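Handout, section 4.2: multi-component inputs.
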Amino acid sequence: MKARYWVLHYLAGLILFVLLLGHIFMMHFYKLIEKIGYGRDPLEWESVLERARNVTFSTLYILFLFFALFHGFYGLKNILIETDFGKRYEKIVVYIFWILGIFLFIFGTYTTIKAGGV
Amino acid sequence: MKVKFIIKRYIPELAKNGFDKYEIEVKEGMTVLDVLLYIKENLDPTLSLRFSCRMGICGSCGMIINGKPELACHTQIKKIVENGKIKVEPIPNLTLIRDLVPDLQSAFIKHKKIKPYLIRKDEKEQENPKREYKQTPSELLEYLQFSYCIQCGLCISSCPVSSTDEDFLEPYVLAQAYRYCIDSRDEGFSERLKIVSKSHGVLNCHFAGGCSKACPKGVDPALAIQLLKRLILKKTFGLLKDKRGNNIVPPYPEGPNKDKVPKAPPKSV
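Output:
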Protein backbone atom coordinates (compact mmCIF):
# COMPACT_ATOMS: atom_id res chain seq x y z
CA MET A 1 0.00 0.00 0.00
CA LYS A 2 1.25 3.43 -0.94
CA ALA A 3 0.35 4.82 2.48
CA ARG A 4 3.07 2.70 4.14
CA TYR A 5 5.77 4.09 1.89
CA TRP A 6 4.46 7.58 2.50
CA VAL A 7 4.63 7.09 6.28
CA LEU A 8 8.15 5.67 5.91
CA HIS A 9 9.06 8.71 3.79
CA TYR A 10 7.97 11.03 6.61
CA LEU A 11 9.66 8.91 9.26
CA ALA A 12 12.84 8.74 7.21
CA GLY A 13 12.83 12.54 7.05
CA LEU A 14 12.54 12.80 10.81
CA ILE A 15 15.23 10.16 11.44
CA LEU A 16 17.52 11.83 8.90
CA PHE A 17 17.11 15.11 10.74
CA VAL A 18 18.25 13.49 13.99
CA LEU A 19 21.14 11.66 12.31
CA LEU A 20 22.22 14.83 10.50
CA LEU A 21 22.26 16.74 13.78
CA GLY A 22 24.54 14.03 15.17
CA HIS A 23 26.71 14.15 12.06
CA ILE A 24 27.08 17.96 12.18
CA PHE A 25 27.85 17.81 15.89
CA MET A 26 30.49 15.11 15.38
CA MET A 27 32.12 16.72 12.35
CA HIS A 28 31.98 20.42 13.10
CA PHE A 29 31.72 20.73 16.88
CA TYR A 30 34.45 18.26 17.83
CA LYS A 31 36.34 21.01 19.66
CA LEU A 32 33.39 21.23 22.01
CA ILE A 33 33.56 17.47 22.49
CA GLU A 34 37.31 17.78 23.17
CA LYS A 35 36.59 20.27 25.93
CA ILE A 36 34.22 17.84 27.56
CA GLY A 37 37.00 15.28 27.43
CA TYR A 38 36.00 13.05 24.50
CA GLY A 39 37.06 12.61 20.92
CA ARG A 40 39.52 14.27 18.59
CA ASP A 41 39.58 15.71 15.06
CA PRO A 42 37.10 13.41 13.24
CA LEU A 43 39.06 13.66 9.98
CA GLU A 44 42.29 12.26 11.43
CA TRP A 45 43.05 8.89 9.84
CA GLU A 46 43.04 7.01 13.16
CA SER A 47 39.76 8.60 14.07
CA VAL A 48 38.17 7.62 10.74
CA LEU A 49 39.46 4.07 11.10
CA GLU A 50 38.23 3.85 14.67
CA ARG A 51 34.73 4.84 13.66
CA ALA A 52 34.75 2.48 10.69
CA ARG A 53 35.61 -0.45 12.98
CA ASN A 54 33.02 0.53 15.56
CA VAL A 55 29.84 -1.57 15.20
CA THR A 56 27.59 1.22 16.47
CA PHE A 57 28.95 3.72 13.98
CA SER A 58 28.79 1.23 11.11
CA THR A 59 25.18 0.48 11.96
CA LEU A 60 24.41 4.20 12.06
CA TYR A 61 26.08 4.66 8.66
CA ILE A 62 23.99 1.89 7.15
CA LEU A 63 20.80 3.33 8.69
CA PHE A 64 21.77 6.77 7.43
CA LEU A 65 22.29 5.34 3.97
CA PHE A 66 18.95 3.50 3.98
CA PHE A 67 16.88 6.44 5.16
CA ALA A 68 18.66 8.95 2.93
CA LEU A 69 18.21 6.75 -0.14
CA PHE A 70 14.57 6.03 0.61
CA HIS A 71 13.68 9.61 1.47
CA GLY A 72 15.52 11.02 -1.52
CA PHE A 73 14.30 8.58 -4.15
CA TYR A 74 10.72 8.51 -2.87
CA GLY A 75 10.60 12.31 -2.87
CA LEU A 76 12.11 12.44 -6.35
CA LYS A 77 9.60 9.87 -7.57
CA ASN A 78 6.74 11.95 -6.16
CA ILE A 79 8.02 15.02 -7.97
CA LEU A 80 8.53 13.14 -11.22
CA ILE A 81 5.13 11.45 -11.39
CA GLU A 82 3.44 14.82 -11.22
CA THR A 83 5.05 15.81 -14.50
CA ASP A 84 3.63 14.68 -17.84
CA PHE A 85 6.74 12.62 -18.54
CA GLY A 86 6.65 10.92 -15.15
CA LYS A 87 2.96 10.15 -15.42
CA ARG A 88 3.43 8.58 -18.83
CA TYR A 89 6.22 6.32 -17.58
CA GLU A 90 5.18 6.02 -13.94
CA LYS A 91 5.88 2.30 -13.58
CA ILE A 92 9.25 2.59 -15.29
CA VAL A 93 10.20 5.54 -13.06
CA VAL A 94 9.22 3.58 -9.95
CA TYR A 95 11.16 0.46 -11.05
CA ILE A 96 14.26 2.47 -11.97
CA PHE A 97 14.28 4.15 -8.56
CA TRP A 98 13.78 0.84 -6.77
CA ILE A 99 16.60 -0.84 -8.67
CA LEU A 100 18.89 2.17 -8.28
CA GLY A 101 18.06 2.48 -4.57
CA ILE A 102 18.62 -1.20 -3.83
CA PHE A 103 21.87 -1.22 -5.81
CA LEU A 104 23.21 1.86 -4.01
CA PHE A 105 22.15 0.48 -0.65
CA ILE A 106 23.92 -2.84 -1.26
CA PHE A 107 27.00 -1.03 -2.58
CA GLY A 108 27.08 1.41 0.37
CA THR A 109 26.50 -1.33 2.94
CA TYR A 110 29.26 -3.48 1.39
CA THR A 111 31.65 -0.51 1.48
CA THR A 112 30.82 0.26 5.12
CA ILE A 113 31.32 -3.35 6.19
CA LYS A 114 34.52 -3.66 4.12
CA ALA A 115 35.90 -0.44 5.64
CA GLY A 116 35.38 -1.99 9.06
CA GLY A 117 37.85 -4.70 8.11
CA VAL A 118 35.33 -7.52 8.30
CA MET B 1 -22.08 53.64 -12.67
CA LYS B 2 -20.63 52.36 -15.94
CA VAL B 3 -18.47 49.25 -15.69
CA LYS B 4 -16.41 47.67 -18.45
CA PHE B 5 -16.73 43.88 -18.49
CA ILE B 6 -13.88 41.94 -20.08
CA ILE B 7 -15.18 38.43 -20.66
CA LYS B 8 -13.23 35.43 -21.83
CA ARG B 9 -14.73 33.98 -25.03
CA TYR B 10 -13.92 30.52 -26.32
CA ILE B 11 -15.96 29.08 -29.16
CA PRO B 12 -14.14 26.06 -30.62
CA GLU B 13 -16.33 25.72 -33.75
CA LEU B 14 -15.55 29.35 -34.70
CA ALA B 15 -11.91 29.06 -33.57
CA LYS B 16 -12.61 32.02 -31.30
CA ASN B 17 -10.39 32.34 -28.26
CA GLY B 18 -9.96 35.74 -26.68
CA PHE B 19 -11.74 38.47 -24.74
CA ASP B 20 -14.85 40.49 -25.55
CA LYS B 21 -15.55 43.84 -23.90
CA TYR B 22 -18.96 45.14 -22.87
CA GLU B 23 -19.78 48.40 -21.16
CA ILE B 24 -22.74 48.09 -18.83
CA GLU B 25 -24.64 50.57 -16.67
CA VAL B 26 -24.60 48.85 -13.29
CA LYS B 27 -27.31 49.35 -10.67
CA GLU B 28 -27.03 49.00 -6.90
CA GLY B 29 -27.05 45.39 -5.73
CA MET B 30 -26.22 43.82 -9.08
CA THR B 31 -24.11 40.68 -9.05
CA VAL B 32 -21.73 39.52 -11.74
CA LEU B 33 -24.25 36.86 -12.75
CA ASP B 34 -26.95 39.52 -13.20
CA VAL B 35 -24.67 41.37 -15.61
CA LEU B 36 -23.69 38.22 -17.51
CA LEU B 37 -27.37 37.37 -17.96
CA TYR B 38 -28.09 40.96 -19.03
CA ILE B 39 -25.35 40.67 -21.68
CA LYS B 40 -26.74 37.32 -22.86
CA GLU B 41 -30.31 38.64 -23.07
CA ASN B 42 -29.63 42.07 -24.54
CA LEU B 43 -26.20 42.35 -26.11
CA ASP B 44 -24.76 38.98 -27.11
CA PRO B 45 -26.92 35.83 -27.07
CA THR B 46 -23.91 33.69 -28.02
CA LEU B 47 -22.34 34.14 -24.58
CA SER B 48 -22.39 30.80 -22.77
CA LEU B 49 -22.39 30.40 -19.03
CA ARG B 50 -23.63 27.93 -16.47
CA PHE B 51 -25.95 28.97 -13.68
CA SER B 52 -28.94 27.59 -11.82
CA CYS B 53 -30.02 28.72 -8.35
CA ARG B 54 -28.68 32.32 -8.31
CA MET B 55 -28.13 32.11 -4.55
CA GLY B 56 -24.84 30.32 -3.94
CA ILE B 57 -26.23 26.85 -3.41
CA CYS B 58 -25.91 24.93 -6.67
CA GLY B 59 -22.27 25.78 -7.43
CA SER B 60 -22.89 26.12 -11.17
CA CYS B 61 -21.57 29.64 -11.68
CA GLY B 62 -18.02 29.27 -10.36
CA MET B 63 -15.71 31.61 -12.30
CA ILE B 64 -12.54 33.61 -12.01
CA ILE B 65 -13.60 37.20 -11.40
CA ASN B 66 -10.84 39.80 -11.37
CA GLY B 67 -8.36 36.99 -10.93
CA LYS B 68 -10.09 35.46 -7.92
CA PRO B 69 -12.20 32.32 -7.82
CA GLU B 70 -15.77 33.36 -6.98
CA LEU B 71 -19.37 32.34 -7.46
CA ALA B 72 -20.78 34.87 -9.93
CA CYS B 73 -24.19 34.83 -8.25
CA HIS B 74 -23.01 36.18 -4.92
CA THR B 75 -20.25 38.51 -6.09
CA GLN B 76 -21.41 42.10 -5.78
CA ILE B 77 -20.05 44.28 -8.56
CA LYS B 78 -19.58 47.33 -6.36
CA LYS B 79 -17.32 45.38 -4.03
CA ILE B 80 -14.95 44.01 -6.64
CA VAL B 81 -14.81 46.60 -9.41
CA GLU B 82 -11.25 47.84 -10.06
CA ASN B 83 -10.71 51.02 -12.14
CA GLY B 84 -14.17 50.59 -13.62
CA LYS B 85 -13.27 47.14 -14.98
CA ILE B 86 -14.21 43.57 -14.19
CA LYS B 87 -12.53 40.62 -15.86
CA VAL B 88 -14.45 37.34 -16.00
CA GLU B 89 -12.76 34.07 -16.95
CA PRO B 90 -13.69 30.38 -16.66
CA ILE B 91 -12.28 28.06 -14.02
CA PRO B 92 -8.76 26.93 -14.99
CA ASN B 93 -7.33 23.39 -14.55
CA LEU B 94 -10.38 21.94 -16.28
CA THR B 95 -11.20 21.34 -19.94
CA LEU B 96 -13.17 24.23 -21.37
CA ILE B 97 -16.36 23.47 -23.29
CA ARG B 98 -17.25 27.01 -24.31
CA ASP B 99 -16.86 30.58 -23.01
CA LEU B 100 -17.35 30.36 -19.25
CA VAL B 101 -18.42 26.72 -19.17
CA PRO B 102 -15.81 24.25 -17.86
CA ASP B 103 -16.17 20.50 -18.18
CA LEU B 104 -16.58 19.18 -14.64
CA GLN B 105 -17.13 15.60 -15.73
CA SER B 106 -13.64 14.44 -14.80
CA ALA B 107 -14.10 15.82 -11.29
CA PHE B 108 -17.49 14.14 -10.96
CA ILE B 109 -16.00 10.81 -12.06
CA LYS B 110 -13.31 11.19 -9.38
CA HIS B 111 -16.02 12.09 -6.87
CA LYS B 112 -17.89 8.90 -7.70
CA LYS B 113 -14.68 6.88 -7.21
CA ILE B 114 -14.40 7.70 -3.51
CA LYS B 115 -17.89 6.33 -2.81
CA PRO B 116 -19.52 9.48 -1.45
CA TYR B 117 -22.27 7.74 0.45
CA LEU B 118 -22.66 5.79 3.67
CA ILE B 119 -21.19 2.30 3.43
CA ARG B 120 -22.56 -0.28 5.84
CA LYS B 121 -21.48 -3.88 6.25
CA ASP B 122 -25.09 -4.91 6.72
CA GLU B 123 -26.45 -3.93 3.34
CA LYS B 124 -29.85 -5.52 4.02
CA GLU B 125 -30.39 -3.22 6.97
CA GLN B 126 -29.28 -0.25 4.86
CA GLU B 127 -31.57 -1.10 1.95
CA ASN B 128 -34.60 -1.66 4.20
CA PRO B 129 -34.21 0.82 7.04
CA LYS B 130 -36.68 0.53 9.87
CA ARG B 131 -35.54 3.75 11.45
CA GLU B 132 -32.67 6.26 11.16
CA TYR B 133 -29.12 5.69 12.44
CA LYS B 134 -28.16 7.18 15.77
CA GLN B 135 -25.92 10.24 15.76
CA THR B 136 -25.08 12.61 18.56
CA PRO B 137 -24.77 16.38 17.93
CA SER B 138 -21.00 16.20 18.56
CA GLU B 139 -20.64 13.37 16.02
CA LEU B 140 -22.54 15.50 13.52
CA LEU B 141 -20.26 18.49 14.14
CA GLU B 142 -17.20 16.39 13.23
CA TYR B 143 -18.18 16.36 9.55
CA LEU B 144 -20.81 19.09 9.24
CA GLN B 145 -18.43 21.74 7.88
CA PHE B 146 -17.23 19.41 5.12
CA SER B 147 -20.76 18.48 4.11
CA TYR B 148 -21.45 22.06 2.96
CA CYS B 149 -19.49 21.46 -0.25
CA ILE B 150 -21.49 22.42 -3.36
CA GLN B 151 -18.97 20.97 -5.87
CA CYS B 152 -18.51 24.28 -7.63
CA GLY B 153 -14.93 23.39 -8.59
CA LEU B 154 -13.40 26.64 -7.33
CA CYS B 155 -10.98 24.66 -5.16
CA ILE B 156 -9.73 22.93 -8.31
CA SER B 157 -9.01 26.32 -9.86
CA SER B 158 -6.65 27.28 -7.05
CA CYS B 159 -4.93 23.94 -6.47
CA PRO B 160 -1.33 23.78 -7.73
CA VAL B 161 -1.43 19.99 -7.84
CA SER B 162 -4.61 19.97 -9.93
CA SER B 163 -2.95 22.38 -12.35
CA THR B 164 -0.03 20.05 -12.99
CA ASP B 165 -1.53 16.63 -12.37
CA GLU B 166 -4.81 15.89 -14.12
CA ASP B 167 -5.13 12.52 -12.37
CA PHE B 168 -5.01 14.10 -8.91
CA LEU B 169 -8.17 13.48 -6.89
CA GLU B 170 -9.40 17.04 -6.56
CA PRO B 171 -9.47 18.87 -3.20
CA TYR B 172 -13.23 18.74 -2.82
CA VAL B 173 -13.26 15.02 -3.64
CA LEU B 174 -10.72 14.33 -0.89
CA ALA B 175 -12.67 16.54 1.50
CA GLN B 176 -15.77 14.49 0.75
CA ALA B 177 -13.80 11.28 1.30
CA TYR B 178 -12.90 12.55 4.78
CA ARG B 179 -16.47 13.72 5.39
CA TYR B 180 -17.75 10.16 4.87
CA CYS B 181 -14.84 8.44 6.64
CA ILE B 182 -15.44 10.46 9.80
CA ASP B 183 -19.22 10.00 9.74
CA SER B 184 -20.14 7.93 12.79
CA ARG B 185 -22.70 5.97 10.74
CA ASP B 186 -20.19 4.93 8.07
CA GLU B 187 -18.18 1.68 7.93
CA GLY B 188 -16.28 2.21 4.68
CA PHE B 189 -13.00 3.79 5.78
CA SER B 190 -10.86 0.84 4.66
CA GLU B 191 -12.55 0.81 1.25
CA ARG B 192 -11.98 4.52 0.73
CA LEU B 193 -8.46 4.33 2.10
CA LYS B 194 -7.49 2.00 -0.78
CA ILE B 195 -8.78 4.57 -3.25
CA VAL B 196 -7.44 7.79 -1.74
CA SER B 197 -3.99 6.50 -0.79
CA LYS B 198 -3.08 5.45 -4.33
CA SER B 199 -0.81 7.50 -6.57
CA HIS B 200 -2.28 10.93 -7.37
CA GLY B 201 -4.40 10.67 -4.23
CA VAL B 202 -4.41 12.38 -0.87
CA LEU B 203 -0.68 11.83 -0.31
CA ASN B 204 0.14 13.98 -3.33
CA CYS B 205 -1.44 17.08 -1.77
CA HIS B 206 1.23 19.76 -1.30
CA PHE B 207 -0.82 21.59 1.32
CA ALA B 208 -0.73 24.92 -0.48
CA GLY B 209 -4.07 25.76 1.12
CA GLY B 210 -5.41 27.53 -1.97
CA CYS B 211 -8.51 25.35 -1.99
CA SER B 212 -9.59 26.58 1.44
CA LYS B 213 -9.01 30.19 0.47
CA ALA B 214 -11.05 29.78 -2.70
CA CYS B 215 -13.97 27.88 -1.17
CA PRO B 216 -17.06 30.11 -1.15
CA LYS B 217 -18.81 27.96 1.46
CA GLY B 218 -16.06 27.83 4.09
CA VAL B 219 -15.63 24.08 3.71
CA ASP B 220 -11.83 24.17 4.22
CA PRO B 221 -10.83 21.21 2.04
CA ALA B 222 -7.17 21.64 3.03
CA LEU B 223 -8.08 20.88 6.65
CA ALA B 224 -10.08 17.82 5.59
CA ILE B 225 -7.16 16.56 3.52
CA GLN B 226 -4.71 16.93 6.41
CA LEU B 227 -7.14 15.18 8.76
CA LEU B 228 -7.51 12.41 6.19
CA LYS B 229 -3.72 12.08 6.11
CA ARG B 230 -3.78 11.78 9.89
CA LEU B 231 -6.36 8.99 9.68
CA ILE B 232 -4.15 7.18 7.16
CA LEU B 233 -1.13 7.64 9.43
CA LYS B 234 -3.03 6.16 12.38
CA LYS B 235 -4.32 3.31 10.26
CA THR B 236 -0.80 2.52 9.00
CA PHE B 237 0.52 2.32 12.56
CA GLY B 238 -2.41 0.14 13.57
CA LEU B 239 -3.75 2.81 15.92
CA LEU B 240 -7.08 2.92 14.13
CA LYS B 241 -9.37 -0.06 13.97
CA ASP B 242 -12.26 -0.30 11.55
CA LYS B 243 -15.07 1.40 13.35
CA ARG B 244 -18.55 0.02 13.62
CA GLY B 245 -21.13 2.45 12.41
CA ASN B 246 -23.78 3.59 14.84
CA ASN B 247 -26.81 1.35 15.24
CA ILE B 248 -30.29 2.32 14.25
CA VAL B 249 -32.51 4.02 16.77
CA PRO B 250 -34.73 1.55 18.65
CA PRO B 251 -38.33 1.37 17.46
CA TYR B 252 -40.85 3.76 18.96
CA PRO B 253 -42.14 2.53 22.30
CA GLU B 254 -45.78 1.55 22.46
CA GLY B 255 -47.72 4.40 24.00
CA PRO B 256 -49.60 3.79 27.28
CA ASN B 257 -52.93 4.86 25.76
CA LYS B 258 -52.63 2.75 22.64
CA ASP B 259 -56.17 1.31 23.06
CA LYS B 260 -57.69 4.74 23.61
CA VAL B 261 -56.68 6.04 20.23
CA PRO B 262 -59.86 6.43 18.16
CA LYS B 263 -60.11 4.41 14.98
CA ALA B 264 -59.82 6.15 11.67
CA PRO B 265 -63.17 6.99 10.05
CA PRO B 266 -64.27 4.77 7.12
CA LYS B 267 -63.15 5.76 3.66
CA SER B 268 -65.46 8.25 2.03
CA VAL B 269 -64.45 7.49 -1.55
